[in-house]
Amino acid sequence: MGTRIPALLAPPIGFAHRGARAHARENTLDAFALAREMGATGIETDVRVTADGEIVLNHDGAVGGLPTLSNLRILGRPVAGLPRSRLPAHIPTLGEYYERCGTDLELSVDVKDAAAFAGLIAVARDHGAAGRLWVCHHDAGVLRSWRDAAPEARLVHSTRLDRLPRGPERHAADLAEAGIDAVNFRREDWNGGLTTLYHRFGRFALGWDAQQARQIAELVDAGIDGVYSDHVDRMVETLARFTDDAGA
Question: What integer pLDDT is reported at residue 118 of this predicted model?
Fold first, then answer.
């Protein structure tokens, strides 16, 4: 099937949210590797920095999980207050991610701790992968301040449509002026008119929390450039259907 609205990226990137979250423990090397095996063209994760400057992939600010004799003393403690050696083994570093999964997939990174940004870019550059980074943050002003420090990375404003006090057209213009490459809205915010608006300003349109095949298909039909889903199997199958039909 062809899409109703053309995208800037065709096919759109299929980001596996926190790895294959619906299929494996989130933000682990096994989840990332599984998502790759299942056909995801992008990985989504979250970065934080440890007390000794390591960039680790973990959604929460505090150490979580089930209590065991080995982790009982650190449960609930901030990741930023612990050295890498004290963290549970399932929390990987960014370097370990690249070593396990390679550098050819797009990598969308939600920067939970702004202090992690410099280390994120440094590690990605060390692996020759900074050009495949999509760096996400909820504050456009923070993203603007990062632009010159990482010209090769794509910067993404993650927000909601109802959080734009001056409306989407002014927002798109502001992103273009600041050199912020993309906007990431929750799936229900998007429609074909809105993707067309952001594309007119040369900004990529990304949609998150698309869990059902129908939701993914609606985003692609509306011209989305990248979709985030926990369900990698549904995402890959739906994106393939559009790609195969377009090439037929």
Answer: 97
